[in-house]
Predict the structure.
Amino acid sequence: MSNYTKPLPAISTLNGPYWDGLKQRELKMPSCNDCGKLWYPPAPFCPECWSRNFTWRQLSGRGTVNSWVVFHQAYFSSYKDDVPYNVAEVELEEGPRLLTNLVGIANEDIVMGMAVEIVYDDVTDEVTLAKFRPVK
Amino acid sequence: MSDWNLKDQTAVCGVGHSSYGKRLNRSTIDLGGEAIRNALEDAGLKKNDLDGLIVSFGTPIGADADTLAYALGLKLRMYNQTWAHGRFTASCLQWAAMAVKAGLANYVACLASISFSGFRKPMMGGASDGEGAREGGGGHGEDPVYGMTSPGAGSALIAQKYFAKYGATSRQLGAVAVAFRKHASLNPAAMMRNPISIEDHQNSRFVCEPLRLLDYCQINDGAACVIVTTSERARDLQKSPVFISGMQGLPAGREEFIWTHPGFGVAQQSVFDYQPEPQPVYQMAGVTHADIDALFTYDAFSILVWTALERWGFCRPGEAAAFTQDGRIEVGGDLPINTHGGLISEGHIMGWNHQVEIVRQLRGECGPRQVANAQVIQWANAYGDSLIYRR
Ligand SMILES: [Zn+2]
């Protein structure tokens, strides 16, 4: 794990709870206690009503494939053994969309709208990524 | 109407550019100097007439406004610059129009001078892509943590969804690349002048699937410059003025994703049936779609032509695939688009080469690729900003 060479997230005071959540096997996003809006990416206060009264809510980790691409070119040298690799946009049951990688499926078998669920990938001691796999 | 109705109040009085090419091995200050010099000469102006400068796309791969002024010995009363991103062409021209109207400057040179391919390291994706490292994420959906990098990948995400949503195909998208290459074949300044076929497009390799190499713009070096002044001053200069008749600003927010219209349903956009309501740019210019003799759009990737056509209401969502077939977007067709070959085939000068071509079309200087009797031309983008020019 210590020789992981791919890009890592820049963890900040704004997105810290998101990354802490993943490490603890919880997909969490900020949710407004006043208007009910759930949002991603993180923001300092509710982007809908500007309330600062929000909590990090745990989500189901289920969603569907909203779109995806397959990289045939390795822009990062750390990805050169991975091409062709996929990047998908998953629409969570609760609404927000996340970029991710689909695992446990061949690129040619990915279809629009397929049901997927979260897989926690501990890439380093500090960072856990949210990846998704088809729902069996 | 207030004094700030800018319809036809300002004009482009000169255009110029450097040569365009891969690995020209020239400094961006050198390229920018050549473009500014050519534009001033085109306008019949002298170095010291120039008192304003607006630069699109400076560091890390382009020349910055202050260093250009220093190196070229300019005496500026105002300058401004956007961050290193291609989307600000219209924004720069809008600032220039407002600046000359407000008297901040008399003649404002607007340009990009860039080296994607040689003098500086390429930054389009990968480790040197500063975009993906921005707090809040990349401007084209970059998320390097999952290997999502480069502006083209965000476009590929749109293309995949578009194909699925409307049953469109990569083969249909090929018509855009074929049309622009045909235009470039008629343009001595273009980098890619050999005509291509749909089969060539279909046989080109995937870069970020479903987009292929021939869906992608050029990665090159060069500079292009446009000089803006008041219409009053422009009328006294050597070339016919090309008036800025309408303008519309660059939208932003959660309902926007740079490569498509609202409602499309990517990133955090809502999903709805997008209705292209009458856009302010047409009202300001006092024209309708029927008056637009040619359309120019930011074609970093072929799919952006489809999403721009739909965003601006030239066709309904889902119809652009069919709309762009059978030569309709070629010179001689119903709506010629990017008659110089665009970023895909003339070269990638961040849309500044498009402004040069628009001006030349409206002056009737385009030879074999001239749009007959061009009077009104629109610059309108997938990301939602626009200019309408008239002669
Ligand atoms: Zn709220």
Observations:
- The CA atoms of residues 163 and 169 of chain B lie 6 Å apart.
- The pocket of zinc ion is lined by residues A 32, 34-35, 37, 46, 48-49, 51 (CB under 6 Å).
- The mean pLDDT of chain B is 95.
